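Field reference: sequence -> structure
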Amino acid sequence: MSFLLALLFTLSSNLDNFVMGLTYGVKNEDIPLLSNIIISFITTFVTYLSMLFGQLITHLVPHKFSNELGSVIFILMGAWFIGSDLLKKTTNSTRKTP
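Structure field:
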């Protein structure tokens, strides 16, 4: 069952490869097949390892704690991206004034 989940996650993450290939195709640039295969293999392997590691962690960490930790991480990531974007805008606006 975990192999099937890893395969599904791999297919969904390799949609990025498809979009990049489509983008390069529109620009008439070629991505070598070997490079795409290597990227796909690495993505598959890392996804499978992370799923195995996740199964091990579920036995050690309570469900409520993992939900709260995930929420805090998402909130911090959002604050980080918003803050860095605001910082870029303020530094760009101060540079434009003579």
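Note: The radius of gyration is 20 Å.
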